[in-house]
Amino acid sequence: MALCSGRAVIFDLDGTLTQSEEGIFNCVRHAARAVGAPVPDDTALREYIGPPLAYSFRAFMGLDDETAERAIAAFRERYHRVGLFENRVYPGIRRLLRTLKARGDYVGVATGKHGDATRRILDHFGLSPFIDSVCCATDARSEKVDIIRAVLPENCREAWMVGDRRFDMEGGKAAGIRTIGAVYGYGTLEELQKAGADVCVESVQALIDFLCPGEEPPRGAFLSIEGLDGSGKSTQIALLTDALDRWGFEVTHSREPGGTRIGEMLREIILSPENPEMTAETEALLYAAGRAQHVRELIRPTVASGRVLLCDRYVDSSVAYQGGGRQLGVQRVLDINAMAVDGTLPLATVYLDINHEAALKRRHAATSPDRIEAESDAFFARVEQAYRELIWRDPERFIVVDASQPPEVMGEEIAQRVIQRLVEDELHASSAC
Ligand code: TYD
């Protein structure tokens, strides 16, 4: 048994750390079909999250012992293959676990799940580094109180059990520790209060406020996405956002030119086809001015609040479009931007790699080009060349992805590579604490 001199916080998994209904619902449906039972509707399916499977299949599906065993086998087979990853980390949970770790709390997970599913889920979503101990059900240990006792460290000054069902509250009480009912999960306030919850929280933020009052949030991250007009950025931003949500990263979107009230006003001026007399120098300085505001008003505060800021274009666009396209020169544009950026660079920049001829074909499908999109093919050839120079100068930061692939294939590659970077960065930050 581990030792702990401070505080221990033990979490249930499903409905507390992760929103696991998609996988669990799919597996209950699969099990019902496998034994020829009627498939429950969505409301009835919610009951299956939390209680032990043997109890649920008998109590809710009305199966006899032998059929319930077969249903459980079918459930587990699908669950271990795919169901466990049809899951989402609740927004805020990543931030909470990182904060607890930084404070030096002992963090445990106690679940009624059998086998190695819990570890696989925590590993898959990159949460394991923030958890000291995991304890699951076994054939000999299926009562929640025993699972909680097994994960609790010795000698802690204070211990809490956080869960979303009555089993968690009852188990915590029986183990002699205090309990927090997570009303945002699958139980109800009434269920949790009746089971004797010491505290109930309506949201993950309320849980953070209760467990870590006044604590500084861990640092978030800044990401940007770049590419020629027509490279498919909008689709990829939507796909990446969904993947980041699933992992529990809290995402704020922004764009350049724009992102702030002043930035959006500058955007109007820069992109308006009614400003044909704008010189290349004016254009470069206006982009940089909007960026100076963006960095200070939005990018830095968002990252400091623990969120991931995902920006559609940043300083690389200026270097490529004004430095390359308008021929101001890469170094001159970097110099113009030095004060605007002031050292704030993305942790990672996704570059959608498409050549300018293919991008042009895609753009032809779009209506009414803005002042930049209306530029010549030679202009975009220079933009592409300048991007290549930037990638060559800073290969660590860029994640270069072949944009001629189908969007979903590209989306998976981008999500996997970006999430790997974010998880590494979190680890690095937590080891620096
Ligand atoms: P936008 O409509 O946002 O295009 P896209 O969807 O392709 O990003 O318009 C932004 C245009 O501004 C785009 O053509 C690239 C250009 N741009 C620059 O020339 N320099 C810059 O610094 C930035 C941020 C954008």
Explain this structure to me?
By secondary structure, the protein is of the alpha/beta class. The protein contains 18 helices and 13 strands. It has a six-stranded parallel beta sheet with strand order 5-4-1-6-7-8, sandwiched between helices. Strands 10-11-9-12-13 form a five-stranded parallel beta sheet, with helices on both faces. Strands 2-3 form a two-stranded antiparallel ribbon. The model has no long low-confidence stretch (mean pLDDT 94). The site of thymidine-5'-diphosphate has 16 residues, from helix 14.
> Could you name the CATH topology of the largest domain?
Rossmann fold
In CATH, the homologous superfamily of the largest domain goes by the name: P-loop containing nucleotide triphosphate hydrolases
Strand content: 15-25%
| Rg, Cα atoms, Å | 26 Å
Overall geometric form: elongated
Structural class by SSE content? alpha/beta
CATH class annotation of the largest domain: Alpha Beta
Mean pLDDT: 94
List how many beta strands DSSP finds.
13
Low-confidence stretches: none
Head-to-tail CA distance between termini: 26 Å
Number of domains: 3
Number of helices: 18
Helical content stands at 40-55%
Going across the biggest sheet, name each strand in turn: 5-4-1-6-7-8
CATH architecture of the largest domain: 3-Layer(aba) Sandwich
**Main β-sheet description:** 6 strands, parallel
Bound molecules: thymidine-5'-diphosphate
